[in-house]
Amino acid sequence: MIVIAVFAMGNVATMAQKDGSKISFGVKGEANSSFNICKNLPLVRETTNGFGANAGVFLKRDILENLAFQVELLGQYKKSGFQTLTSELELSTWGIEVPAYIMGQFKVGSGLFYFGAGPYGIALFTAEMNDVDVLKENNYFSLSRWNLGVGMIAGFELKCGLQFNVNYKYAMFNSLQNADVANMIENTASIGIGYRF
What is the tens place of the pLDDT at every residue in 22-52? Predict the structure, then answer.
């Protein structure tokens, strides 16, 4: 996933050099809230939100005055909860996300309002349910290390380069491995700040 992100960023930079479009980069940090939509998952009565964080870098290419492409490389920590008939379980994951957005952008006063949508990929390094590694076979369920989804972003950038943004990501595929009937789809909402150089 890191290789894909580096390749995408390099490709964006190369294309920008060829056509003379403006390219810039920045850093960002976000607080996230993650929850799962589950169907036919044995013993689970309901799921609950958990809170985590994302942090990383982004590369932006201004294609036109009101159109841009942005790719990000984010480290992420997420938590979510599950309530069974007898106990409460907590899932925590560490991984990396690579979102890519096509964005519209418009000047508002001395700042810049932007919004966009696009695909993202995720790779998990670790995933634990009550200290049990759920990337391996266990008594709870086994998570897939990889997933793809779609995301949306909206934000405002001040003249100095400081940004405020919100985004929402929806996984397209089942997060569970080798599941015949059970289904778990991850949803994540984030709010954060960034700085574009």
Answer: 899 999 999 999 989 888 887 788 899 999 9
The yes or no reply on domain 2-196 and CATH 2.40.160.20 is yes
pTM of the predicted model, to two decimals?
A: 0.86
Alpha-carbon 118 to chain mean position: 11
Tokens matching residue 22: 């403006």
DSSP at 65: T
Cβ 115 vs Cβ 156: under 8 Å? no
CB-based contact 147:122 (threshold 8 Å):
yes
Distance CA 128, CA 140 (A): 10
Pick the closest to residue 95 from 71, 120, 73, 126 (CA basis). 126
Pull the structure tokens for residue 66: 């009101």
d(CA 157, CA 172): 30
Q: Which amino acid is at 17?
A: Q
Q: Which two tokens stand for residue 129?
A: 């349910």
Every domain of the chain and the residues it spans? 2-196
